[in-house]
Structures are given as structure tokens and as C-alpha cells.
Amino acid sequence: PRSAWGKASRTFGAWGVSARAEIQREDLNNADIEVNADSANDDLSFQMMASAGTAGSSVSSISATKGFTSGDARVTVSPTVDMGTKDVNVDIGYDAGKTNVEVNASKDEQTIKVSQQIDDDNRVAPSFALRSGKMAVEWERNLGDDNSLTTTLRPNEEIAMEWKDSAWTANINMPIDGNSISGANVSVKREVNF
Q1: Of 4, 10, 9, 8, which Cα lies nearest the Cα of 31?
Q2: What's this model's pTM, rounded to 2 decimal places?
């Protein structure tokens, strides 16, 4: 195997806490560590990503997610701090059933994505990056039996397609420049459960 991992979980009152460590075959002296704590009663969770090994230990990021209800919608606020750069990223989600809004803000870029379920089989989600002016349009088509085809157009960048068919997933990425498609990258994978 290329890596090995282990996970431990425990409950402390209303809090569920888990810790996961993973080591890579190429570097058996260091481990990537993920610690999660969540309280369903408080609709609050925390996550810490770190590394530990012979050279010492360091925390790479800390994040929290708080959820609450506002009218008929669910709102989540998720700040993340990159401990190396001290950069802060904040994700805000608003889920009102057929309409969802996602806002992502960092010091470099702010994006907004509005997703609308048009009918039982079709969802459209335009997104806009406020600083760079980039935009994208995502269309998801439900093919039945939990199968779907999602196409994302990013003008002057790419057309990306993801086709999920049961345990199979095919991804097609076509870089575009103006009206020209410069090639296609195709990958296919299958989920196998033991």
C-alpha cells in the first residue's frame, strides 16, 4: 500500500471527537493528522489539520462550522485559518430547499454561487468571482437511480463534465481558448467497497 491510516473516536458529553493519522510509504517518519469535534446539539463543529514526526509537529489549519435556522432556510458559517500564512477564509451557506447560495471570501478573492433546482431533474448554478471577474455556469442533470451528468462552463478556461453512473465516475476536461477546444483529458474511476 502507498499509505496507512488509523482512526480513533470517542464521545465526551454531547461532543463527538475523532482523530485520524495517515502515513505515506515514502515518509514513514511523519504523519498527517486530522482532529474533528462536533456537537449536533449545538450545530457546531471544529476541525484541525496538523502534521507530526521526527522534525516536530505543526498545525496547518483550524476551521469551525456553525449552523442555524433562519425562517425556512439553513445557514452555515465556516471560517478557516491557515496557520502558516495566517490567511482567513470564510464560507457562508444559505440553503432554502430549491435555492442555495454559497459565498466564499478570502483576502485574494470573493465568490458567490447561486444554485436553483429548476425541476426534479435539472439544477443550474451560476457563480461569479468579484475580484477577478471570472464566472462559471454549472448544469446538473439527474439521470435517475442516483446517476447524474454535471457540466461546468468557465469561459476562456474550460468545459468540465462529470458523469456519475452507479459506482463509476467519468470526468472529461476540455480546455478552451475563445472558441477553440485545445484537447480533452478523460479519467474514469470506479468505487470499490470491501
Answers
A1: 4
A2: 0.76
